[in-house]
Structures are given as C-alpha cells and as structure tokens.
C-alpha cells in the first residue's frame, strides 16, 4: 500500500472498515480463553449493562443482529396479520423484513428533502385504524423529526419505534437516537460504527417489554421458569455470543472516539465541498448531533447526474462508493408507490461516500475530486 502511494498509483479506497485495536484483541482473547462454563455470559451481561447506561435507557438485550432485535420487538408489541407499520420508502431491506415476516403490512411514506428520513406529514396522512407502529429509521446517522413523530404517536396511541442501526452517536435535543421510542434497535454489523462483525441490540426503558423480549430471545422460556427444557411460548433465538460481546465491550469503550472520527470525516467532506452549491451532505439539526455513520452526497437535479454515472466514475478511481437506497416499494416483493417522489428522485442523484477510522486526508481529497468532476460551472 505504502509503495503504491509513493509511486503515486491509485490504491483501492474501501467504503467502510472497522477500527480494531489491542483492546478488542485482548477482550476477545480473554473471552475465548476464559468465557466458558459459569462465565459464558460474562461479556454479554457486561455489554448489555454498559450499553443501556451509555444510551440512557433502563434495559438492553444483545442480539445476533439488528434485524432480529426488531423482529422480536415488533412481535412483543403483538404486531401481526392485518396490522400496518408505517416507515419511509427510502430504507434498507432489514427495516421492513421483520414486518413482513410477522404478516403485517408495511406502509411506505415519502422522505423529507433535507434529512432523507420519513416526512411526519405523510406519516400522519397514512395513519389508519390498523396502524400498529411508526418505525423511525435514522438514515445514515441523520435524525428523524422526533418531536413531531412523538406527538403524532402519542396523539394516536401508536408506539413509535426507532431503528438506530445507522445512528449510534446521533443525538436529538439531548437524547440519544434509539432511546426516545417505545424501543430502539441497533446494529453491530461489520459496516457499522461500532461492530461485533454481526450483532445488534434491543433497548428499552419499558420493564414489561424488556422482560418479554428477554424471554422471547431465549426460546420463550421465562426467566422465572424453574422447569428445565420448558418453554412458555414459541420464541426466537437471536442471541449474541460471548465472543462477539467481548469485541462489543471493547468497541463500546471506544464509542465516543469512533463516533468522533466519523464526525471528523463528515466535517472533512463538508469543508472541501462548502463552496459547492450543487452538492448537499448529511444535515445536522441545530440542537442535535449527527453520528455521521455514512457521509452521503446528494446533487441538485440541475446537475444532471445519474446513479449509474456516479458509480462508474468512482469505480474507475478504485473508490468503493455505494448507491443511495432504492425505494423499498420498487423492489419485487412490493408495489411501487409512485407518489413517493422524493424517495424516487433523490436516490437517483446521490451517492454514499467512504468513511472509516483510518481514512487519510489524501483519501478524502481523492473522493472529493471524483465528486467535483460532476459539478458544472
Ligand atoms: C444495518 C441495518 C440494519 C440491519 O442490521 P443487521 O445487524 O445486519 O441485522 C437494520 N436497519 C438499518 C437502518 C441498517 O442500516
């Protein structure tokens, strides 16, 4: 790599990459040596306690994925056949898959022009007597309009749920993303700011909901159940391993540092593009913090860019940029919602930019110069 740099050759720039230090290695080594028998849950218990404390909620349940955490949470709320769940059309498939698995109907609404998160006015218009949840996904670290969504949810008596998989470190008016709804879910997938390779977290301050999800995650065996091999109901098995939890404990100790570096990279892009009117980046609310998981550039329509041209240019420069999420409703399992014009339009003129802990200023320059090649005078 260094030789390539010296020669001025282009080396590949990945889009994300975890930051692993001696701390992570030490914890995982300890877990693999000692974390068995009576100690087989030590790191899991510690991660759950530390995470709940850091997030500012009463309880956390470690899971094997964010998708699993969401599946159990929705199931615990009793969501099933005939029910509707409102979410933004612009989303990763993981946010909607559990809704479908439970037999409920996803209702896709349009996004806001600036935050790319669900539009509260459209949420309100989509509420029916069958609406059983509003799923607020904080896209790319950007925050949903939580005040308006919380008011809507409480006015209509509908639970507001946060998918904060992309928003670890994001803060809305002093409250961390994932701590404001009935429950919040997080992902520790290898691409996320805090990672265990695969993994997730369910977080809530609702005692009863916590007890239910904890028991659901243990095949429906209630913690107070004393009979062996006895299930009280059909549950799930989305548990995190102690080895993964050891990695998670180390990453969580470094969470402020990991988020700060993400924010520094987004700021680096912002500084370099500040004079460019044709590109906007992830917004940050005046009284909030964007955890900056995924710096994303959206071109104005007049720039005339296409997703395909952007991808091709980045590929030619060996930069692993990624497409902005396609509308979920366009995918073959659903029916296109033509009226979600912003979700359809923005994704066609936007691109996710690389951001990882060890990214250099030279890397940032290279990404930005590729972006600038699309800017018209
Ligand atoms: C990554 C992600 C998920 C899924 O996380 P897994 O841990 O892979 O299940 C869910 N929702 C959003 C918004 C994500 O970005």
UniProtKB/TrEMBL annotation:
Coiled-coil region(s): none
Family: Belongs to the DegT/DnrJ/EryC1 family.
Entry keyword annotation includes Transferase: yes
Source organism (scientific name): Rhizobium aquaticum
GO MF terms, alphabetically ordered: GDP-4-dehydro-6-deoxy-D-mannose-4-aminotransferase activity
Enzyme class at the top of the EC tree: transferase
Name the UniProt record assigns to this protein: Perosamine synthetase
EC number of the protein: 2.6.1.102
Protein keywords: Aminotransferase, Pyridoxal phosphate, Transferase
């Amino acid at each position: 790599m260094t030789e390539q740099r010296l020669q001025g050759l282009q080396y590949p720039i990945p889009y994300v990459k975890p930051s692993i230090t001696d701390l992570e290695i030490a914890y995982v080594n300890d877990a693999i040596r000692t974390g068995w028998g009576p100690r087989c849950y030590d790191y899991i218990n510690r991660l759950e306690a530390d995470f709940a404390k850091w997030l500012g909620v009463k309880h956390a349940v470690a899971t094997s994925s964010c998708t699993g955490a969401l599946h159990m949470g929705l199931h615990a709320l009793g969501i099933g056949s005939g029910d509707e769940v409102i979410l933004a059309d612009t989303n990763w498939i993981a946010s909607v898959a559990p809704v479908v698995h439970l037999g409920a109907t996803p209702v896709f609404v349009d996004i806001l022009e600036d935050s790319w998160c669900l539009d509260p006015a459209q949420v309100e218009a989509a509420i029916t007597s069958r609406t059983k949840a509003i799923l607020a996904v904080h896209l790319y670290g950007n925050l949903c309009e939580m005040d308006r969504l919380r008011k809507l949810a409480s006015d209509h008596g509908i639970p507001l749920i946060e998918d904060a998989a992309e928003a670890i470190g994001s803060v809305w008016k002093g409250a961390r993303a994932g701590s404001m709804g009935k429950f919040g879910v997080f992902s520790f997938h290898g691409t996320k700011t805090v990672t265990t390779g695969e993994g997730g977290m369910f977080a809530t301050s609702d005692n009863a909901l916590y007890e239910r999800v904890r028991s659901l995650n243990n095949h429906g065996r209630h913690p107070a159940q004393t009979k062996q091999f006895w299930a009280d109901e059909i549950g799930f098995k989305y548990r995190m391993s102690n080895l993964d939890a050891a990695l998670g404990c180390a990453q969580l100790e470094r969470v402020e540092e990991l988020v700060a570096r993400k924010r520094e990279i987004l700021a680096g892009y912002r500084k370099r593009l500040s004079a460019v009117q044709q590109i906007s980046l992830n917004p940050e609310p005046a009284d909030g913090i964007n955890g900056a998981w995924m710096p994303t550039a959206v071109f104005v329509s007049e720039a005339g860019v296409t997703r395909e041209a952007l991808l091709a240019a980045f590929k030619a420069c060996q930069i692993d940029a990624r497409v902005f999420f396609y509308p979920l409703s366009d995918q073959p399992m659903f029916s296109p919602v033509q009226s979600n014009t912003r979700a359809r339009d923005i994704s066609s003129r936007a691109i996710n930019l690389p951001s990882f802990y060890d990214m250099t200023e030279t890397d940032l320059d290279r990404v930005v110069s590729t972006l600038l090649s699309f800017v018209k005078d």
